[in-house]
Amino acid sequence: MGAKRALVNGAGGFIGSHLAVRLKEEGFWVRGVDLKRPEFSDTACDEFIVGDLRDPNVVRDAVDGIDDVYQLAADMGGAGYIFTGEHDACVMHNSALINLNTVELGRLAGVKRYFYSSSACIYPEHNQLDADNPDCEESSAYPAAPDSEYGWEKLFSERLYLAHMRNYGLEVHIARFHNIFGPQGTWDGGREKAPAAMCRKVAETPDGGSIEIWGDGDQTRSFLYIDECLEGVRRLMESDFMGPVNIGSDEMVTINDLARLAMEAAGKDLTLDHIDGPLGVRGRNSHNDLIGERLGWRPEAPLREGMFTTYAWIAEQVAAAAATAGAK
């Protein structure tokens, strides 16, 4: 019998490209699909389809002969992309179409097992107004009131996969990701997440300078290093638990403190210039009781370690970009 065959939708992106490496290490044959290949590394996939998952023909080719689907593809980005309101229609249309195609055409092709990457953005805004005490327990998702169209689409797609599970007997596993970060992720251009944005700003700023922070910086979040995200995904996929379950760190920090971690990694003393900008909810933190109970595991790596590793990689990218610009 040959190796188990996995499909990674979004294999050109940050989490998807890392997941392909992890699956290959475990002995899977891996097909990846994305609009583009990974930007910062060669793909680990055995086969890579450069294609648009909104196109049913691309999806039919992608799911052919596949055992497990990992659906991570989405129209997404950081706060500068999601919370301006300027991309709401595209976010909802593009991501919903990808999921509708993936689960239905996969089912018709005989795929039985699915992992779907949902998001902490599905949690009600009113439960995340207190920066010190946000409520992101899995059961708090309803009554639904996400703070963005991105969150609404993710919640719809959770229900889409669960409906297919009930009606067609599919095996579905759903994780709600909380701010995954690490090397080889987007670090500029407006779609980067907060850890990458902080590392970039610090790397670009001379010692003694200042960096801009949206809002007062006292808003809180938690951030999960990529290796622990992959561990959670694989444990969930091989379990008998469908979820939804949080995959995130419960080490909550303010955005100001996140910036200070990047400064510490750089060995720089910078001041923070607080300006207006898109913020999202006031507080968010992963609630990890359920993952501990059902998977016998929970993320524990300190944020500081992940930030130091990520800063070192982003500082290299900033230096390389500056050198290229200087050579022109």
Specify the oligomeric state.
Answer: single chain
Radius of gyration: 19 Å
User: CATH superfamily name of one domain?
Assistant: NAD(P)-binding Rossmann-like Domain
Total strand count, please?
13
Q: What can you see in these coordinates?
A:
This protein is an alpha/beta fold. It has a domain at 5-181 and 223-247: NAD(P)-binding Rossmann-like Domain (Rossmann fold, 3-Layer(aba) Sandwich). Helices cover 40% and strands 16% of the residues. A 7-stranded parallel beta sheet has the order 3-2-1-4-5-6-11, with helices on both faces. Strand 1 (5-9), helix 1 (14-25) and strand 2 (29-34) form a beta-alpha-beta unit. Helix 6 (194-204) crosses helix 8 and helix 8 (255-266) crosses helix 10. The longest helix has 25 residues, at 303-327.
What are its keywords?
seven-stranded parallel β-sheet, 16% strand, 10 helices, 328 residues, alpha/beta, globular, single chain, Rossmann fold
Topology overview:
Blueprint: E1 5-9, H1 14-25, E2 29-34, E3 47-50, H2 56-63, E4 68-71, H3 79-82, H4 88-108, E5 113-119, H5 149-168, E6 171-177, E7 180-181, H6 194-204, E8 210-214, E9 220-221, E10 224-225, H7 226-237, E11 245-247, E12 253-254, H8 255-266, E13 271-275, H9 289-295, H10 303-327
Parallel strand pairs: 1-2, 1-4, 2-3, 4-5, 5-6, 6-11, 7-10, 8-13
Antiparallel strand pairs: 9-12
In short:
The chain is an alpha/beta fold and 328 residues long. 40% of the residues lie in helices and 16% in strands.
